[in-house]
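TA notes, week 10

Several of you asked for a full example with nothing omitted. So below is the full record: C-alpha cells for the whole chain, then the designed sequence directly under it. When grading your own attempts, check the secondary structure regions first.
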C-alpha cells in the first residue's frame, strides 16, 4: 500500500500561517507574527517590544486586544489549535482514499516538517509545550484542550479505518490515538535534539505496526 504525501503540510500551514494577502486585522496580525517568532525561539525569549516591532504595531494596540502577555499566550495557542484542527479535519475527511491512507499521509507530513531545518515548519505544540506549562495554568489548559482535540480527531479516523478494513489494529481508537500522538511528540523532540531524521523514521514504522498496516511502504 503506497501513501502519497500531499504538497502541503499541516505543520507548514499552521506554524507559518501564511496567507496570500496581508492581514488587515491587528489582533490576528499580532498573533500571526508571534507564532512565527515564537515558533523559532520560544515564548519567553521573544520580548513584547521585539514582537510589536516585528508586527509594526504600536504598544497600545497590544493591550487593546490582550490584557497581559499571559492572556496573549493563551490566545496564541487557541488560535494555533483552531487552525490546526481545521486543516486536520480537511486532511482526514472521508473521500480521499481509505482512512489508513489519510492517517499515514498526515504522519508522513509531520515527519517531513519536523525533520526539516525550516523553523517555520515546526509545530508550536512541540516548541512551546514544556515551557508554557511552567509559566501559566491558563496556557497549560489551552495546550491541553488543543492536544485533546487533535487526539479526538485522530481517534475518529482510526475508528473509520477499523470500520473500512484498512486498519487491522484491535485496540480502542481513543487509546490508540493517544498513544500515537504521544509517540510523535516524543519523536519530534528527539529529532530536534539529535538533528537526525531517525526518530521520525522509527515513529513511522511504529505507527504502521500499531495501526496494523502491513508492508514496508504501507
Amino acid at each position: 500500500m503506497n501513501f502519497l504525501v500531499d504538497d502541503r503540510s499541516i505543520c507548514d500551514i499552521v506554524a507559518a500561517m501564511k496567507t496570500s494577502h496581508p492581514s488587515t486585522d491587528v489582533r490576528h496580525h499580532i498573533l500571526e507574527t508571534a507564532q512565527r517568532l515564537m515558533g523559532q525561539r520560544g515564548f519567553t525569549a521573544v520580548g513584547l517590544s521585539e514582537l510589536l516591532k516585528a508586527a509594526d504595531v504600536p504598544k497600545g494596540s497590544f493591550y487593546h486586544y490582550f490584557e497581559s502577555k499571559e492572556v496573549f499566550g493563551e490566545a496564541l495557542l487557541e488560535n494555533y489549535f483552531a487552525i490546526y484542527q481545521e486543516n486536520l479535519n480537511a486532511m482526514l475527511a472521508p473521500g480521499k482514499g481509505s482512512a489508513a491512507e489519510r492517517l499515514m499521509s498526515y504522519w508522513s507530513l509531520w515527519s517531513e516538517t519536523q525533520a526539516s531545518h525550516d523553523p517555520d515548519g515546526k509545530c508550536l505544540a512541540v516548541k512551546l509545550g514544556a515551557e508554557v506549562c511552567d509559566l501559566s495554568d491558563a496556557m497549560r489548559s489551552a495546550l491541553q484542550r488543543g492536544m485533546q482535540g487533535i487526539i479526538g480527531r485522530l481517534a475518529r479516523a482510526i475508528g473509520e479505518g477499523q470500520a473500512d478494513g484498512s486498519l487491522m489494529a484491535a485496540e480502542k481508537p481513543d487509546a490508540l490515538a493517544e498513544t500515537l500522538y504521544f509517540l510523535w511528540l516524543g519523536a519530534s523532540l528527539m529529532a530536534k535534539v539529535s538533528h537526525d531524521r531517525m526518530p521520525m523514521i522509527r515513529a513511522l514504522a511504529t505507527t504502521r505496526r500499531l495501526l496494523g498496516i502491513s508492508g514496508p511502504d504501507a
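The chain has one domain: 10-211. Use that as a sanity check on your answer.
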